[in-house]
Amino acid sequence: MGKGSCVTLLLFIGLVSSVYSYDLYKDPSQDVEARVQDLLSRMTLAEKVGQMTQIERGVSNNSVVKDLFIGSVLSGGGSVPDAGNTAEAWQDLVDRLQNDALSTRLGIPMIYGIDAVHGHNNVFGATIFPHNVGLGCTRDPDLVKRIGVATALEVRATGIPYVFAPCIATCRDPRWGRCYESYSESTEVVTSLTDIILGLQGEPANKTAGFPFVADSSKVAACAKHFVGDGGTTNGINENNTVIDYKGLVDIHMAPYFDSIAKGVSTVMISYTSWNGMKMHANKFLVTQVLKYNLKFKGFVISDWEGIDRITSPAGANYTFSIESSINAGLDMIMVPNNYPQFINGLTDLVKGGYINMHRIDDAVTRILRVKFAMGLFEKPLADRSYSKHLGSEEHRSLAREAVRKSLVLLKNGKEAGKPLLPLSKTAAKIIVAGSHANDLGRQCGGWTITWQGGNGTTTKGTTILDAIKGAVSPTTQIVYEPYPQPGFAQSQGADFAIVVVGEPPYAETFGDNLNLTIPEAGIPTIQNVCGEVRCLVILVSGRPLVVEPYLPVMDAFVAAWLPGSEGAGVSDVIFGDYDFVGTLARTWFKSVDQLPMNVGDEKYDPLFPFGYGLKMGTPNSSGGSINFMRRWRLLDISCWAVPLIIHMLKL
Ligand code: GLC
């Protein structure tokens, strides 16, 4: 071919390619891994570092997402759009940030993350499901999966595609402020309830795509947290040290990650805690060797909030070391979340200086891009506003009400054999409803509700336990509501019985650490003032078992309601007999905090109520409910607690 014709040919190819520039990574028909590698090959260091950076909504204004190629934005607890806490305001916020990301040279979508840990709990009007401590008592993976489906729809209703859930901690000490975020002290119970991942993300399609779940805009990317050993710290001290051998770490705390990975979990969040003195955020053996290589986790590993800062003490004392040790340990995305200039500059300098090699950066970005491609974020980056209708829908509230019913645990029913108090009569002439938690939606929802710590009062939409009781009884029944009854009040009313609802105020994380676990505030005097004067059912609204043994004798009946969330009618459904109790303890109920930690299977096991315990009501339902009542012990549960108890008694 002559010189002239070569030039002509090159000019022709150049023309064609410029007119029709084919970017493989933009082609959804291509394999995920091929798209990842094509895009990765085009990225600059600045674009790669940007993908590894997650910033908080509060610092995402102006054009930082565009200018610094930010790969992810989050809302911390309570961090809502400036325009208000509505579905539309959230959709507008996420879309604004997304359009910034899409306007970059390569148009890589950012992924917005939020803590939807018991429904879409940051958003006003969202359905608030029972916290995990109650769901563990249901022993119902299908229920929890359905909650995942509903939660994903409500999160997508706000344009968000990523949730920092489920927490799959195995809480081994109820003094831990986050114990209510754990399904159980039992690894087996926690593992079984990782089915929520299937609800959140969708069913695995196949194992070849590197990521088994199918792109579906009604689903969200999930996050198994906090890897690993978050629920096993000494005395339950939050963010502290988990002292245990490797076998114990694997058997008790790591096992739920096996199932989470098998179910296709997209991301794993690292725990603030240390394992035998080694900070998890700097633990290369557990993060890279175990999680990524041994367990073959293909998604991305994200830090906790300022998690790398806390590698040093005081936090942030040597931020460059924090960046180097966490990234080299195998973390892929850093929840900075505010001081992103220092993170971006620090990481960039460490790569340029050869302290962090480009292979590590490419591994991190590969994993981040893999999740974004696999979940379809490149194809559907913006909010689908047709999902707005799902936020707080009646269908989801009905599901939450079912979850409340199944999470309740009946621990006492009658002071004398054959004389149960429950089911309560719906046609009683007069009922006293007392206690700080009877008419308080915020208290029945607990922490991580609307705000990080949660709050008292009408913080969102829902039904209080008092309102539910009012809706359940006959029109002729008089209800006397007194949150803080004084001595003599109950007796003066001439009521048929009283319902006393007391418990813990909302809290989250370290604010919930508690060494004495007594019923706080006016709970104890309320129990004593009412139950000493009239037949009473006590309902405890708490994130964990509390000290109740001294007060049990005065109670006619006692129910653990945990943190039921927005649908208080789930409580009235059961105590008035429309449904029977099915819940059984997923945590050992201790007699005294001096016994802690004490978990099922321990050699020294002397609980007030053992793991697996839960009564059913003993009389036929008098209100035409849907289930006949039989008093029966559940064989499965009885073996969980009766065997240890018998062994213990034989040893005495
Ligand atoms: C918190 C929690 C973590 C949460 C994250 C973002 O400190 O430890 O569970 O997902 O920060 O809110």
TrEMBL record:
It comes from the Eukaryota. Keywords: Glycosidase, Hydrolase, Signal. Pfam families: Glyco_hydro_3, Glyco_hydro_3_C. One of its GO terms (biological process) is glucan catabolic process. Its EC number is 3.2.1.21. InterPro entries: Cellulose_Degrad_GH3, GH, Glyco_hydro_3_C, Glyco_hydro_3_C_sf, Glyco_hydro_3_N, Glyco_hydro_3_N_sf. Residues 44-371 form the Glycoside hydrolase family 3 N-terminal domain. Gene3D superfamilies: Glycoside hydrolase family 3 C-terminal domain (3.40.50.1700), Glycoside hydrolase, family 3, N-terminal domain (3.20.20.300). It catalyses: Hydrolysis of terminal, non-reducing beta-D-glucosyl residues with release of beta-D-glucose. Residues 1-21 form the signal peptide. One of its GO terms (molecular function) is beta-glucosidase activity. Belongs to the glycosyl hydrolase 3 family. This is beta-glucosidase. The lineage of its organism: Eukaryota, Viridiplantae, Streptophyta, Embryophyta, Marchantiophyta.
